Amino acid sequence: MVNPRLWSLIKKEFIQIWRDPRTLALTFVMPVIQLFLLGYSATNDVRNVPLAVWDQDKSAASRGLLASYRAAEYFHLDYEVESEDEMRALVESGKARAAILIPPDYGDLIARGQGAQVAFIIDGSDPTVAGTALASATFIGQAHATSLTMEKLASRGQTAAFRPALEVRTQVWYNPDLISAYYMVPALIGLILQMLTTILTATSIVRERERGTIEQLIVTPLRSWELVVGKLTPYVIISFINMVEVLTAGVLLFGVPIRGSVPLLLLLSALFLVTTLGLGLFISTIASTQQEAMLSAMFISLPSMFLSGFFFPLAAMPVPLQILSYLVPLRYFLIVVRGIVLKGVGMEALLPEVIALSIFSVVIMGSAALRLRKRLD
Questions:
Q1: Which domains does the chain have, with CATH numbers?
Q2: What's residue 352's pLDDT?
Q3: Is residue 372 within 8 Å of residue 224, measured between CB atoms?
Q4: Which of 275, 289, 280, 262 is nearest to 359 (CA)?
C-alpha cells in the first residue's frame, strides 16, 4: 500500500513542475538539442581538409597522384595555385589547411623509375587536424607509391616477385568505421543525467526555502526520508524519460547500435541517479538561493565532465588528474553505458564500476540526507 503522505507530496511536486511549463519544456527539449549539437560537433573525425595544389608538372603521373588524394575522404582539392606566394597566402589565411607541391620533373622521374619527391605542407596551428592530415597524407602517398611499383612490375611480368616482408591485417571491434558519434552519444546519457538531476534537485529544494514553503512541509507529519523521497521521485522519472529520449534520438539520428541489455542499462542508470540526486540534495543544503544552487551544480558538473573521459582520454592526462578522476562518479558510468551500448557486455565485465558507483551512491546520498535532516531540524 502506498504511503498516503508520501503520495501526496509526490503529487504536489508533479503539480508544481507542471505549473512551470517553460522549465518543463526545457527539461525535455534540452537533451535533444545537446545530443544534436554534441553528436555532430564533438567529433574527432577529420574529413574534407581543404587542400591547395601547386602542380608544376601537369602530367598524367601528377594527375594520378592527385586522384589518389581526391579519392580519399580526408582531403578536398579546393585550390589550384601557380606560385609559392599564392600557396602560402591560402595557408596563412586558413582557407587551405594543407598544400601539395608537385615538382616539374615529377612525371619524368616516375617514368624512368627514379625516386620523385613531393612536398606536402600542413598547417599545424590545429594539432587535431594537422595530426590526421599528416597521417593521411603519408598513408595515401605510400599506397600510391606501392601501386606505382606494382604497375611497373606488372609491365615486366614480375608481379610475383613483389612480396612484402610483413603484412599486418587489422581488425576493429565494436565500431569498425571509427564513427565518433557512436562513442559520444552513449556518453551523453551520463552527462545529461548528471546535469539535469543535479541542477533540478538542488534548485527544487532551494526554491521551497526561498518561497517559505519548506517550513509548511516541516510542520506536516512527513518524516525526513519521506520528504527526501517525495521531492526526488518526480526528477527520477523525468531523468529516465530523458535517458530513453536520448537513446531513441541517438539510434534514429546517428544510427548508434544498442548491442547490450536495455534493462541492465536502466538498472545501472538508476544506481548512477542515486549519486547525482545525492549531489543535488547536498548542494541544496549549502545554497541559499536558486542562482547559487545552479552555480554550485555547474561547478561540480564541468570538472567532472572533463575528468570523466567524456571528451579526452584519461590515459593522456597527467598522473595527478588521473588519480583525481577516480573521485568522479561519471567516469565509472561512462564505462558502463559505453560497454553496454557499444560492446554488449554484461554485469560481470562491469563489476568494478558497479561496486564503485554503489559506494558513491551510499556515501553521497547518505551524507546529503543527514545534512538535509539537520537543516530541517
A1: 4-42+179-376 (no CATH), 49-161 (3.40.1710)
A2: 92
A3: yes
A4: 275
